Amino acid sequence: MRLRRPSALTLFVLSAFGWIVALTFAWSQVSAWTSYPVGVLASAALEQGAPMWVREVHLRPGAMEVDTAIAVPVAQAGGQRGEITIEASPARYAYGLPIFLALLLAARGKGRLARAAAGYLLLLPFQALSLTMYSLMQMLLAAQLDLRLLRIAQWQMEAIVYGYQVGALVLPTLVPIVLWLWLDRRFVNDVLVRGWRESLGAKPMAQ
To answer: Considering the entire predicted model, what is its pTM?
Structure first.
């Protein structure tokens, strides 16, 4: 009995899974450097977009430190106030890069190097947005969501909370997949869509 050869769709899924595991491990070793531009973009966004909160952002490979102008009461200092500092990792929401590269390699198409470079650059602003919203959310929590300390309106705080939820839960995994679908759309149409239709296995009508 001859074994049935796995479909192109099955081979792609298995290959993509293997590449994700391997590339995620490799990315974890160099993420401090590959994610550094994410920190640069997020630093600029925080300093320019929230000047009433952010005094200065200190950035180095693997870490970002935000000195804020948000002063909160210090329990052990007799009611005196201290300005809070927020720490974040630029790689925190940049794990979409190995996902994107894994899908690209599993597709085995031509011009992968150029698409990999384009994908890396296109992912940066979305990753920076996620990091920016995470940092803003940490400021809200450090101030215990006190609107008087934060000097913002209720709707502004709700917008930050919503932006954090989108940036933390949706963008990191959705954007690399959508980006790959767009950059590798010929492979998607010719192999994946066709393979999915064939896997449905339409049954012939009875005579």
So the answer is: 0.86
